[in-house]
Specification:
This protein has 101 residues and is α+β, with helices and mostly antiparallel strands. Helices cover 24% and strands 23% of the residues. The protein has 2 helices and 4 strands; from the N terminus they run H-E-E-H-E-E. It starts with a helix and ends in a 6-residue tail after the last strand.
Length: 101
């Protein structure tokens, strides 16, 4: 059985929270580096997060919550994505561990 499937069987996907944090600002944006939003479950919407960042993040919020490995070579538990603007923001997605709540 693949390791990702084993992880899913051992966790409650719907209770897994994901944090999305702005890491880099490349142009004009209402968000600032360090802005952080927590999704209470993988299909939740984080209040205050613009749709330009939320829309491309949606599938990766679920991937992150499920423990699916990312393409990041330095830490495959983290996803880094870019908002829809060509000079927008770079966001870090990571699971929120229980002790961080």
């Amino acid at each position: 059985m693949p390791s990702t499937l084993l992880k899913l069987l051992k966790m409650d996907f719907w209770k897994t929270k994901v944090r999305m944090t702005c890491e880099e600002k490349l142009g004009k944006c209402n968000h600032e580096v360090g802005d952080s939003f927590v999704f209470k479950h993988p299909m939740a919407r984080a209040e205050g997060l613009c749709f330009g960042a939320y829309d491309p993040a949606r599938p990766y919020i679920s991937h992150c919550a499920a423990g699916v490995s990312s393409w990041e070579g330095d830490d495959d538990s983290v996803y880094r994505i870019h908002c829809i603007s060509k000079k927008g923001t770079v966001w870090r997605l990571e699971q929120v561990k229980e002790k961080e709540d």
